[in-house]
Amino acid sequence: MRTFFSFVLCALLAMTCWAETTPATTKEMLQVAIRQVTQLKTTKQSDSLFYSPTTGIEDCCSWSALECFSSQLLSIPTSNKALQAKLRKTLSKKIIVSSVDRCTVEQKAKVNCQPCNSYPMIESNEFMKNLLTLLQKSFMQLP
Fold it and tell me: How far apart, in whole angstroms, are the C-alpha atoms of residue 143 and residue 51?
């Protein structure tokens, strides 16, 4: 009987380790990012102004817009600094960047993306809403 329980325990431990080390899919990672943005919106403490890419981002400039959002995330006043750092780390993951950026190197070379400080400055609520829109748009374009 003891051997059987040891076997079951080892099997459960092996499955848990496998689940923890299996890479997440693009859809799962985008869902995590979307959930983190939504949670961060609720913990925001006050309004500040941020450069924010708007919904009219050129197709091959989405990666640049994501960098702009990510570079300013830690400046948002919030009571949940851990979530803020976690979201920034999530947005920097290659799987997220590649899901937002669907253009080839040649296509990107043909466009001139705006620098972050050329976007309009808007309040943090709109900033978060625009980031959420970019992530949701990427999620909807997945196969």
Answer: 31
